[in-house]
């Protein structure tokens, strides 16, 4: 770990790139982080601490920033809600985690405590299997674009890939799938540790059909068809988000649907089928089981129904 000579503010653009490339966060999350950290930057400047370096940030600074957020009023004259204040703090924690990841001395992210009652309000948005089926069937597979989009959607649900991981896939990684019914691929997940991603027979069949329709020599697995000559045709994360949103609307499934929603749906389906949480952690590439535990609450109703069905005491004598 080394102390940085540069101020915290200087690292924010690099942090946002890190969120996209290495963490594979959705564009919306990156935009939120940028917005929330802009508030922190404003506070630093108000306090004449624009040159504050990562290792110079103290617990007292965090306390003062929390007071600032609690007393801040919007342009409508309303104070920030507790959950909104937490979002600003979560973004700052993510920045501190980035410093740790890059071996830059800074205040540990754990020093920023979040109220438990607010954290419990966080919910996971996911689609049930009926909604997933509608989404997968939405593309018109009679044309190349629809075939590509079907392959994208099937890949997301089969693998639980993050959007940046899917964007990074290349044709050469699928060169030997012609006669295979299932497929596994080692990829670099969150951080630097590779993980194995498994493609179902169904997803692999759509990737095969899509690749058979390709007549180009592009490196990327998923491309757009309007690239200028000499410009890489690889689909961007933003383009894929738009694709998913388009088919969510066509399929009539909730409009909050994003690539990350499909990832949540993938994990939830595994959990509902009895897969151990530790295994799901490996599938998702989470470093900590804590990240995977956000999915456990979505099965509470199912567990309650099972308990009522099999352990209600109805077979006991009065």
> Which structural class matches the secondary elements?
mainly alpha
The profile of the biggest β sheet is:
2 strands, antiparallel
Number of individual domains: 2
Q: Give the radius of gyration.
A: 23 Å
Counting DSSP H or I runs of 4 or more residues, the number of helices is 14
Strands, total number: 2
CATH architecture of the largest domain: Orthogonal Bundle
Low-confidence stretches: none
User: How helix-rich are the residues, as a percent range?
Assistant: 40-55%
Through-space gap between termini: 67 Å
N-to-C order of helices and strands: HHHHHHHHEEHHHHHH
CATH topology of the largest domain: hpI Integrase, Chain A
- The average pLDDT value, as a whole number, equals 85
Question: Could you name the key traits of this structure?
Answer:
single chain; hpI Integrase, Chain A; 2 domains; DNA polymerase, domain 1; 318 residues; mainly alpha; two-stranded antiparallel ribbon
Please give a structural write-up.
This protein has 318 residues and is mostly helical. It has two domains: 8-119, Orthogonal Bundle (DNA polymerase, domain 1); 129-303, hpI Integrase, Chain A, CATH 1.10.443. It is 52% helix and 4% strand. It has 14 helices and two strands, in the order H-H-H-H-H-H-H-H-E-E-H-H-H-H-H-H. Strands 1-2 form a two-stranded antiparallel sheet. Helix 1 (8-21) runs antiparallel to helix 2 (27-46). The chain is globular, with a radius of gyration of 23 Å. The model has no long low-confidence stretch (mean pLDDT 85).
